[in-house]
Amino acid sequence: ALLPALLLLLLLLGLAALAAVLATVLLSLPSYDIPPGVNQPAKLRLVLAVLLGTAALGRILEKTGLCNQITFGRYVRQGRKLGVDPKLFIQDLQFNKVPVRVYQPKATSDGRRRALIFFHGGGWVFGSLDTYEKVCRYLSRESGSIVVSVQYRLAPEHKYPAAYEDCLNATVYFMKNAEHYGVDPANVTVCGDSAGGNLAAAVSQTLAGRSDLPSLCAQVLIYPGLQALDFNLPSYQQNRGVPLLFRERAAFFALQYLNGHALHMQEVLEGSHIPPDMRLKYRKWVSPDHIPEKFKVRGVKPRKSTDFIAEVYETVKRFCEPNLCPLLAEDAVVQQLPESFILTCEYDVLRDDGLLYKKRLEDNGVPVTWYHLEDGFHGIISLYDYCGLSFPSGKRGLDSVVNFLKSL
């Protein structure tokens, strides 16, 4: 009689927890912003509800000691390994001890193929090979490229520069062995979305000075996060409450990657973490002044000056390293970068990171193809063919990447 009673109690607790989650979600939805310019706003609201529900349930599980919130979030986002693809050979390997998944088109090729090395998004905290399985399959099939998807180590367990080092090591290994996979060593591109775009930009900068390897053919940066100096740029103000990436979460992820925790997040959001002289130095690259006026029409307030806090700077000073914030690389490095593709979304806190990097590349003579999704939001590419939650503009963005690759 005791066992059924315990099971009933667990069921009731489970229902109570679920009710709390749903209540949290429903109460939270009005405080977030679904812009009228987004295509299929009801679908985005559904995605938001799932995100908030997952976060709320994760908090409950963590408080009860059953599961860490980040671990639960990874489980929910994991996705699943798909079955055989009739058009692709797919195999899991290791490059320099880094797990990778290689997608090779089965169709015959007249010569050596192009290759795309892909770094997934997820704020350096979430994401996996399985999460981006459909995206990588699509890129490989549609562009006729060999795609190498890299499973770098995740924060907070593995702090900076672990993810960067894994991506760099896997890329160098592949470039040295490209011919073994039927790839033209001169036609290798690095690519990533969000945090993966950050990693692709950092790897591209590092390899720009290498004389022992062929030069990268191109870099593809999909709504990349490229700096952590200023979380008050126009896009951060305009899109602070727009899913899938909120302003606070952008700082949270950056701090998790850097330090393995999110202490001092509020000070970082306010801008108290950068010394005035350093802020002045980097103003030539990170400033609202360099954002075209048409991107400021939705309402931007002048940044309020905040007091610099030296103790906070000591904990985050590596934000000024280009391997972590590629927008801060010197001109001598930027000038050596390969042809670039940058995709930005209007309703994305990271929009201005992409716009600022586009300007830096163009100012230094680097050819740039820019594709802007007027109705796009952060993370829209990762929703491609995902449980019925795809958006038309996400497919357009993915196809713009495919077209760029086929032009190389």
Automatic annotation (TrEMBL):
Annotated GO molecular function terms are: carboxylic ester hydrolase activity
Q: Which family does it belong to?
A: Belongs to the 'GDXG' lipolytic enzyme family.
Record's PANTHER family?
AB HYDROLASE SUPERFAMILY PROTEIN C4A8.06C, ALPHA_BETA HYDROLASE FOLD-3 DOMAIN-CONTAINING PROTEIN
The residues the entry assigns to the signal sequence are 1-23
Protein source organism: Eolophus roseicapilla (Galah cockatoo)
Active site positions: 194, 348, 378
Keyword annotations of the record: Hydrolase, Signal
InterPro entries this protein is in?
AB_hydrolase_3, AB_hydrolase_fold, Arylacetamide_deacetylase, GDXG_lipolytic_enzyme
Q: Which residues form the Alpha/beta hydrolase fold-3 domain?
A: 116-263, 300-381
Record's keyword annotation contains Ion transport: no
Q: What is this protein called?
A: ADCL4 protein
Tell me which domain of life the UniProt entry assigns to the organism this sequence originates from: Eukaryota
Among the Pfam families in the record, one is Abhydrolase_3
Q: Name one GO cellular component term.
A: membrane
